[in-house]
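> forwarded from #structure-qc
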């Protein structure tokens, strides 16, 4: 039997048993991402959802959807594959304003529905193949919409997450009945981040939420992601041959902009914070690359005359030589803002004495070459300053 059919059957039996007991969970006072009271954040991680259309993925008995509608003023749709679980929700909460329940497969439902402003799944998305569920969610969410996922990380037996995109057996436990076998995608956080990035989301945070009893091995992941803007249509291409080209080097620039508010950094869709910059194009000077990348990524306008090149940083990434040119931009026009179809956005100013964790390695190397006293760690690189009366070539080891 296909994996998702196994899960659908298990949750149908589960719902049937709960209907026989006439059991309905109470409407919670606040949204909880784990079964444990007081662990983790609440509905605030969804942002302001007042009046917005929110999707509850795998809505079960519907109690979370009702809370979101009543307590936060959202218009909530609960989508549930199990007909018995859907029956529990629809029969009990049919008259609740701004809440509706749909029964069916989430991917098929989203292919026809109007895109939602936000979506969440409390322990349910792990029952769907991520290669099917995540692209469907990209289609079913508006650009910029938050996607909040609560997922199993370590189970009752202390078995940790997989580093392969493959399901494993987990049991639905019931107090007076035999457990129901299911298949779940219990994946490592980095693997979830890679999958979400592949399918058009930016991961903003991944938290591990531990069981309140220290002896209990169960851990839940809480993933906060956001649907990226649509990208323009792409033109197809094909390789010259089946053999990959030999990698030689990667060349790029990174620009330091320091204002009274601090240092300008943006967040890449893979989660790192970094300086404005990018890859040098053929026939382009380093100064011209800084001017172009600054305009494309932030909307700021500068000129080559206002760009001072600091020097080159050389390191190695899995056998590929990486050369990064640091630059200091002295003057610019405009205010930084997220630009359409760019990988880096959410630009903000950070005081030099309050730099955040998670800097991109190249940006960290540039910053310590510029200000060796900055407390920033990174892998080492060889720095050769350009001729502005600066010291001779040296190594930037990044150990504060």
């Amino acid at each position: 039997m296909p994996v998702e059919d196994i899960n659908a059957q298990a949750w149908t039996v589960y719902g049937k048993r709960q209907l026989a007991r006439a059991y309905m969970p109470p409407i919670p006072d606040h949204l909880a991402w784990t079964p444990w009271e007081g662990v983790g954040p609440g509905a605030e991680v969804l942002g302001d959802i007042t009046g917005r259309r929110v999707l509850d993925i795998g809505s079960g008995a519907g109690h979370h959807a009702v809370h979101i509608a009543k307590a936060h003023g959202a218009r909530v749709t609960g989508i549930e594959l199990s007909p018995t679980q859907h029956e529990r929700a629809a029969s009990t909460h049919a008259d609740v304003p701004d809440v509706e329940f749909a029964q069916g497969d989430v991917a098929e439902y989203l292919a026809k529905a109007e895109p939602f402003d936000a979506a969440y799944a409390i322990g349910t998305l792990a029952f769907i193949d991520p290669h099917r569920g995540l692209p469907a969610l990209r289609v079913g969410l508006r650009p910029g919409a938050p996607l909040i996922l609560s997922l199993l990380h370590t189970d009752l037996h202390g078995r940790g997450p997989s580093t392969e995109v493959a399901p494993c057996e987990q049991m639905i436990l019931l107090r007076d009945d035999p457990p129901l076998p299911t298949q779940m995608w219990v994946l490592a956080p980095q693997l979830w981040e890679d999958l979400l990035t592949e399918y058009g989301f930016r991961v903003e945070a991944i938290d591990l939420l531990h069981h309140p009893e220290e002896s209990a091995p169960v851990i839940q992941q809480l993933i906060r992601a956001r649907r990226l803007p649509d990208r323009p249509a792409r033109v197809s291409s094909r390789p010259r041959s089946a053999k990959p080209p030999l990698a030689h080097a990667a060349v790029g620039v990174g620009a330091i902009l320091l204002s009274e508010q601090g240092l300008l950094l943006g967040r890449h869709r893979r989660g790192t914070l970094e300086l404005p910059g990018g890859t040098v194009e053929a026939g382009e000077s380093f100064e011209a690359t800084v001017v172009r990348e600054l305009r494309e990524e932030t909307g700021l306008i500068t000129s080559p005359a206002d760009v001072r090149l600091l020097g080159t940083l050389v390191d190695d990434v899995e056998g590929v030589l990486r050369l990064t040119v640091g630059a200091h931009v002295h003057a610019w026009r405009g205010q930084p803002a997220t630009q359409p179809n760019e990988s880096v956005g959410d630009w903000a100013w950070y005081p030099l004495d309050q730099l955040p964790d998670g800097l991109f390695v190249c940006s960290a190397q540039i910053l310590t070459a510029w200000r060796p006293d900055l407390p920033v760690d990174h892998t080492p690189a060889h720095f050769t300053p350009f001729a502005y009366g600066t010291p001779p070539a040296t190594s930037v080891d990044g150990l504060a």
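QC bot note: The helical segments are 3-21, 63-72, 83-93, 106-112, 130-140, 189-198, 286-298, 361-370. Residues 57 and 86 are 12 Å apart (CA to CA).
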